[in-house]
């Protein structure tokens, strides 16, 4: 139902949804379970689905730039049992021989196409289908078999090559997964760079680049000197911050009765700890105590039950001088006033006890 502005009445309406861009892998999740109050039931209605040539053209928006709208089935997940208990199996197509196999825990069995089509599908996985993409892959494969002398060898991302081998629309070549912003290899990736790249002869690179574009072209790998210097600076910063914090915190722990405690958000502190211990490559942003602070009568106080830690004033000043942020949340333990007569009596008892 919708409200008509012209006649000011409720009218029956139909809502249409169109798709601008289709994914390379399409996942269709069928509603197999119905939940009503305290009861759940399974919907066992058979749903027909094609193994090849699923056409989604009717669902495409008119102004969409999409060109490939057909899909072939890759895999089917099925549920056997009831809404309260059951067992999952999967049917998957082997891309090498185009045969279907049933995966049931540790058991793998070849099955016929009719078995897959008659399955009680729960989740369907489709992949874009393109005869043109398959022809292109065969063409590049044939070129690789032709041993052509090449003066230059080009490095290309294995990640993008995997998309080229499997996707109907791999998109532009992207070598940025193994390069830094300066065009070199980041120092942290240098030890496993061979796992990230593949070397191709010039004629293969020229063919791929002329068709898909992207890049950048890389025919020499080197460790980026700029990134190396930055990495050394970061490592030195980590070590310095950690050492100073440990020293200040040790002094804080040795104090018998500190006059003040500074509170710090544990969420921010955990991010900082991950940075100085090398678990996270980037330093955290400014200290954010907004979630642990509450303002009462113009005073900033610690929120009850807040996820916070206590540090010394020196530690707070040290961290705040580097990262900034806030607000300051200060706790001042109440001072316990001892009656002089009671203190004198305790001292007298201590002296008498020593004499014994």
From TrEMBL:
Domain USP: 1-129
Keyword hit for Protease: yes
Domain DUSP: 131-224, 232-335
Catalytic activity line of the entry: Thiol-dependent hydrolysis of ester, thioester, amide, peptide and isopeptide bonds formed by the C-terminal Gly of ubiquitin (a 76-residue protein attached to proteins as an intracellular targeting signal)
Main localization category: cytoplasm
SMART domains: DUSP
Enzyme class: hydrolase
Official protein name in the record: ubiquitinyl hydrolase 1
Organism: Rousettus aegyptiacus (Egyptian fruit bat)
Higher taxonomy: Eukaryota, Metazoa, Chordata, Craniata, Vertebrata
